[in-house]
Amino acid sequence: MQTVTIVGAGPAGLVAxxxxxxxxxxxxxxxxHASLSGIWSFEGAYYNLHTHQPGGTIEVSDLYDEYASWxxxxxxxxxxxxxxxxxxxxxxxxxxxxxxxxxLHNAAESWSITVEQTAETLSSIETFHFDFVVIVSGLFSxxxxxxxxxxxxxxxxxxxxxxxxxxxxxxxxxxxxIGFAASNLYDDGVFKPQYALNDELVSFPVQPIFTELKRQNxxxxxxxxxxxxxxxxxxxxNTRKIFSPIDxxxxxxxxxxxxxxxxxxxxxxxxxxHETSNDFxxxxxxxxxxxxxxxxxxxxxxNGTWMIDEVASHCVSNYFKGVQLLPSREEMQKEILTIRDxxxxxxxxxxxxxxxxCLELIEIxxxxxxxxxxxxxxxxxxNFGVYRPNRLKTLHGxxxxxxxxxxxxxxxxxxFFHVLQxxxxxxxxx
Length: 430
Ligand SMILES: Cc1cc2nc3c(=O)[nH]c(=O)nc-3n(C[C@H](O)[C@H](O)[C@H](O)COP(=O)(O)OP(=O)(O)OC[C@H]3O[C@@H](n4cnc5c(N)ncnc54)[C@H](O)[C@@H]3O)c2cc1C
Description:
Elements: E1 3-7, H1 11-22, E2 26-30, H2 70-82, H3 86-89, E3 90-91, E4 94-100, E5 111-118, E6 123-130, E7 132-135, E8 142-143, E9 157-160, H4 167-170, E10 175-178, E11 189-192, H5 208-215, E12 219-221, E13 226-231, E14 234-237, E15 242-243, E16 248-251, E17 255-256, H6 266-269, E18 294-296, H7 305-321, H8 329-347, H9 358-368, H10 379-384, H11 395-404, H12 416-429
Helix pairs in contact: 1-7, 7-9
């Protein structure tokens, strides 16, 4: 049986594990945290983090909760991992330190994965060998901390939003937040985006409580930046406005993407972001052009991230099984450049975390696997219904049918339109 290691047990790592196990691979997941589910775990989430989307659109198959709390998402993902006997496949507290091959282009050579495993007080370093690697370490694994002039004079705390873990840490504190994204944190305080919120690129969905607190003037917004910390508790903005006393500065100051377990030479060779470039030049945002037996999953930001990851996992599995062959190196590079130019012209960046339209990528992946883009047999649901993950439930069956050369029936949806049709027929026969 061929062996695969997955680096990271966030939602994308879990769905990749499930797909690869179902396809017959021997899978081991290494996760550096003490619990699974990535952002949606105690280590990954900030205090009171909720999903930013309506329920039914962030799920693998059946999570439905309007603005689910991280605890809810965590419980759901644990339940999901139980579908594939998580304890025998996931190694928690296991940080991958390096992923290495002496010749990246050699498909016959196995990958050496060095992992630091920590127990209560002990830690050990061990090297494992695998046929394939899937890297799913998360788009938001590393974050920026700004350096503010005069910060050494400040007697309060300056923390990244990710490190705001409890109500006690936040309550009764006069807070300033740089940036806007961590909207669940503001039970009271001031937030300071540097750009106007009506800017297309920084508009952001917020929890209803945020809007209410803003209406009550308990949260005040300023389009400005912190210029200087003047003394132990006084902050001045570049609009000359002064805030005092301030106890806590929360930095919602974005994340960046790096792969610290790949060497300084290997990351650029594979087309990955590194010190001097944010480009992410993978074929279909999954596969390096000339390094076989390795894939990257989950490096797309969209409202349908989990669904995209599920379909992408099938692509990766197809690629590892050799069912789907890649086009020539030139064709892959041409496509990468075309997409990069488009993204640059449209979004002004080549960084991977621009917002993709979720259906576009899902359809690209389905097309790559020769699977139908139409997912239902009901015109109304197909064209007007929300694209829910249950449209993807039959992917394994469809692929088996595809490989045998037989057709697979579309799922039947009994929608409101069907009810109308049924009633119409029933009454016309009376
Ligand atoms: C604040 C915030 C809010 C969000 N809200 C939403 C939302 O509402 N809806 C939505 O769809 N998405 C949302 N997202 C996007 C979120 O990234 C995805 O929902 C999802 O968590 C991505 O899954 P992932 O597995 O790719 O990455 P992650 O969840 O980040 O998981 C990556 C895992 O890899 C592990 N890891 C990293 N490096 C190593 C290593 N060297 N060795 C071992 N393990 C490693 C990490 O510990 C982590 O567990 C949000 C993200 C953030 C940061």
